[in-house]
Model the fold of this input.
Amino acid sequence: MTGKQVLPPGTRPVLGWRWGAYLLLPAQRQLWRAGVPVEVEDRVFDLLLLLLQHRDRALDRQEVIGAIWGRRPVTDATLRQLVYKARRVVGDDGEHQATISTLYGRSLQWVAPAEPVYEPEATAAVDATAGAARAARPGVPVPAAGRTLPPGSAPPRRKRVWFAGVAAAVVVVVLAGLFAALRGSGRSDATAPVPASSAADGEATPAYTTLAVLPFKDLDPDQDQRYVSDGLTEELINRLARMPRLRVTARTSSFVFRDKPVDVREAARRLGVAHVLEGSVQRSGVHWRVRVALVDAHEDYELWANEYDVGAGDLLDMEDRIASTVTATLYPKLRAAVAEPHRTPRVDPAAHDDYLVGLEYLNRRTRNDLARAIEHFQRALRAEPGYAEAWGGLAAAYAVWNDYDSDVPPDEHYRDALTAAQRAVALAPQSARGHAVLGLLAMEHWQWTQAVAEYRRALQLDPSNATAHQWYAMYLWYQDDPDGALAQMRIANRLDPLSPIINIDLGRALLYAGHRDQAVVQYREAVALAPRFALAHVFLAEGYLAQGRNEDGLREARNAIALAGSPTPSSYLAMLGVALCLNDRPEAARAQLAILQARSREHYVSGVSLAFLEAQLGLHEQMFKPLFAAEAAHDPLLQPALADRASPWYADPRMAELRARMGLPQH
Done:
């Protein structure tokens, strides 16, 4: 066969597709909007083309993955991000789905009216589009219709240079090279404040610079070493985040770019950073081959690159060296301060493997995955009882359990979380994760002095810890400081801009500070990032109800319940009941309250959920009884209940007693 397209007699070749102001040309791999070319990532273009070619039917998840990634395993998060980017490039979003529709959360279909563009009229259509583009952008070359761009005519791409080296010492050596390269580049975050010149060397030193560590690629043919490449990435993020004057993007946002070809400038733009560290990992016998590159994202060139072959037992040393080198390169004056970085004690390689697998499950944030994370952290600790990082991971898994299974008693895993966090801090006093977990546990037991001290210590150790900023914002909500909480959530969002939960909590911060319309916009952003994240739909429902858009609020409450599965969380049923009541369906709302009351006789149901619905039904006399019960149970759902100044109980005189029981200042 030749590469030429063979068509049945009488069939005209399709040159492209047109819908609205858009024109897509497969041969040229171009997308035009209103006569102006639009930059599109390769896989985004592939998805648009695939959906247009099969616009007469829905394509299931496996069909899409097979067509775009082949046999390579792809997570739901990766596919979700690709759809998100495709919608953005054609002016669509996850709420309206006017162009790309998600069906039942598993299939995709092109739904916008589109028509094929044929030969010969296609030539006129493309020439007209090109003419408009020339008029709009004089001097920009536009290809003639029906011709592909000649080799080399595309914008120049960054050329990669890798040098041979070693894999377990990789992290340490990479950091050294990274810092030398950054020192030579002289670049810093353009938005960072610049203090007065140093008396020591007369040079102005930026207050901080910004860096993202993109997920290291697993080059193993079987793709079964993912936990190593992901774990190496996460360890580098954690270590670099502790370095002075360096702001590092959080793991949640960096990992959005896993399993996809990455345009470094686009990734840096979305993450708001000046530099990017990227690399790959490949197993070679008993060694690991690790390649690392530091990229100046503004100029799009590699400042430094290297390759290392190391044994598994040397990975921790490598991580230390990389982190130290990066910092010393960015800030030469800090070389003395980082010359002797904290060294991670040697641990059993098998224990380290279990720790990395545990981190992978921890970051998936579902009840089943948290259980798996706990299992792997415990296995690591059986092999290495003094492994501080594994204790910190175990503490975090236990501490957030109730957030993803709110129908268990709030204190069910408290003792486990507290013991693990205390052990982590005893073994490694510089553990920001351990201190942040201790702050969360103290806060949820109304120990306010200890909570704020632990949060501040965590942020002192790791100013780039988005979760610590997020949890500190929750503390400020309890303290009736919505503006301070909003400031902390804005910082968390800058550090982790693509995290669905942080986008949700930024929406909450906006809502509690009185910015209802901005809150709804933020909630929509969270839904667009993670359309199947039920919690995002719950808070979007709350935002709509606050705006008086009651039908939209009811729709989103039902969407959340559909996505949550069975059994439906009680807080979701309460939100549904409130939405029904506001839509003039009080009997249906009372039916939801009856369901919650029946549940509460069998197992734990948050008193906040009961009070929320009772208040909406006008049962004001009884709504504080479940709130007092929630206080006695240390229920974390009291936090939004106290933060929302529009709630029916905020101005109730009995609120003073509730706040007094919790040791909180009065309004």
